[in-house]
Write a structure and sequence with these properties.
Alpha-Beta Plaits; 3 helices; 4 strands; 33% strand; globular; Antibiotic biosynthesis monooxygenase
């Protein structure tokens, strides 16, 4: 499998940057993450996401949405809200969320 960044989209669009440090409690996390991936993909304005974790434990997920309404639909989804509440109680030591409108976007890929 080739590792590729999410492609550049036609601006404007919205991105949500979720930076976090996890606790040692992993109970149920993989299952909830899988379900959240299913739910967000049902959102017609969801464009994709990228996620990485440093060896030191800082995780960063950047999710892309066509518009603020699509992001709001994701934020207000009842299952997502329950997962966020559980995450604050069990899975995260700390986190920040940054939301921005992307005004410019381009990409590059080496051929061959």
């Amino acid at each position: 499998m080739s590792i590729q960044p999410v492609p550049a989209f036609e601006p404007p669009y919205v991105m949500a940057v979720f930076s976090n440090v996890r606790t040692s409690d992993d109970s149920g996390y993989p299952e909830v993450l899988s379900r959240m991936n299913e739910i967000v993909r049902e959102n017609p304005g969801f464009l994709g996401y990228e996620s990485a974790r440093t060896p030191g434990g800082l995780g960063i997920t950047v999710a892309y949405f066509r518009d603020h309404e699509s992001l709001t639909a994701w934020r207000t989804d009842l299952e997502h809200q329950a997962a966020m509440k559980h995450g604050r109680a069990h899975w995260y030591e700390s986190y920040t969320l940054h939301v921005a409108t992307v005004e410019r976007s381009h990409g590059f890929a080496r051929n061959g």
